[in-house]
Amino acid sequence: MSELLDILNAGKADDVLGELYGSASAMLQKQRQRYIGLIEEYTHAFRGKRDIELFSAPGRTEVGGNHTDHNAGRVLAAAVDLDIVAAVARNDEDVIRVQSGEYPAATVRIDELAVVESEQFTPSALVRGVCARMKQLGYNIGSFDACTTSNVPEGSGLSSSAAFEVLVATILNYLYNDNSIDTVTVAQISQYAENEYFGKPCGLMDQTTCAVGGLVTIDFEDFENPVVKKVDLNFAASGFSVVIVNTGGSHADLHGDYIALEHEMKAVARALGGDVLRRFSRQKVLSNIPYLRTQVSDRAILRALHFYGDDRRVVDQVEALERNDFEGFLDLVVESGYSSWMWCQNCYSCSNVEEQGISVALAVSERILKGKGAWRVHGGGFAGTIQAFVPNDLLGQYVGQMRAIFGEDSCHELMIRPVGATRVEMRGLDDSQSQSSWSTAKSKAPGSM
Asked: Are 285 and 444 in contact (CB under 8 A)?
């Protein structure tokens, strides 16, 4: 611990931190203090002079493919510079303890891994679920003590739960499996924990993006073997900023809306004799609308049509970025946003039509950014956040307007982070070797490709 504190206080880990959070001096100072505070918190929470390891798992932003992953579709997403960081040390007590200032503490015995119904929607459920799935797959599990700190806002659509479960899986991967579990398997283990133990249905996009890092496109046609491809993009050179606007609504009471959305899309597939929409063409759905209207709701049909549009848009977005057509990419982002609003219908909850913060944010964003940037619902929807690509010369105006409506803490300017969930290696760094030491750690990390 003292070695790590000395490295951080001397600024010798700035290259490591810069890779994760950007090289701005104010940001580096903020992250140094954050890590120092975390290590000191660990010393208070868990007595003893044990060696500790540091781990980080990023949040993610969905860029394209809104609610396409659970029907075997394609997505475009990016890891971001908001993350959960953990200070961790093994113990020999067969108990995993996770202390956090942001979430309820988790205490899980690793020899008691059956589902505990009363734990649903808690960190303990995610820890237990990750351990259970790793053991089922034949990987090693073991006990540890951890303190975490997070700046991924809960309920913001930046996937705080996915970051947490991927963090736990990454810790177990390094401590007890010699970092032998590949990134996709880490993501699948984490998704299992969220589906079966935490109690939230979700696709695999969030966990894969958190595990892999960078800007990635993922094809889920084969759920067991999703195809992950990193997309090269020098976003800093685009002249735009990614802004996530938290409209104040929480995802906490919206599980029924999420379940209904996935269920309705799959109901269309089942009516056609399949399991997911990817097994059929859009034309198949269009030509069968008279029959489908006798089997499913009109909303289900509209949501199915949204799936086909957004699934194709992901391919077009990637092609636009690869040919450096950023304006074309932005047009596709706007198209995706309108499709989510009109056809997917996940910009507000039908159970609470009086609250439409997302719709208000989209309307104001259109007023400011039309013809200049892009805006869309972000993540699961129904409440929470929108995403905007804002020209840097309009950033002050845009953020000021959003903060005036939704509060001073409503806007998050994001950096696309190239590194996924990883151990943050800083032991033994000096001024001449800090960069190469980080590169070695990164090449071994689950977030590497």
From this structure: no
pTM: 0.83
Confidence tier at 431 by pLDDT (50, 70, 90): very low
Give percent above pLDDT 70 in the chain: 92
Asked whether 122 and 183 are in contact (CB, 8 A), the reply is: no
Q: What 3-state DSSP class applies to 413?
A: strand
Task: Count Cβ atoms within 10 A of the Cβ of residue 47 and give its class: 0-12 exposed, 13-18 middle, 19 or more buried.
Answer: exposed
Whole domain around residue 291: which residue ranges? 235-414
Higher pLDDT: 234 or 252? It is 234
Residue type at 152 in one-letter notation: V
Backbone angles phi, psi at 147, to 5 degrees: -115, 135
| Residue (of 170, 224, 147) closest to 57 by Cα position | 170
In single-letter form, the type of residue at position 72 comes to A
Q: How many CB atoms lie within 10 A of CB 342?
A: 12
State the distance between the two ends of the chain, measured CA to CA, in whole angstroms: 30
Distance of alpha carbon 83 from alpha carbon 218, whole angstroms: 21
How far does Cα 33 stand from its chain's mean position?
24
The distance between the two most distant Cα atoms of the chain, rounded to a whole number of Å, is: 70
CATH code for the domain of 386:
3.30.70.890
Q: What is the C-alpha R_g of the chain?
A: 22
For residues 239 and 211, state if they share a domain.
no
Q: Please, are residues 377 and 346 in contact by the beta-carbon 8 Å criterion?
A: yes
Helix (H) or strand (E) holding 100: strand 95-100
The answer to the question of residue 395 being in a domain is yes
Mean local confidence (pLDDT), 106-121: 93
The identity of residue 98, as a single letter, is V
Question: In this structure, are 106 and 203 located in the same domain?
Answer: yes
In this predicted structure, the answer to whether residue 438 has a pLDDT above a threshold of 60 is: no
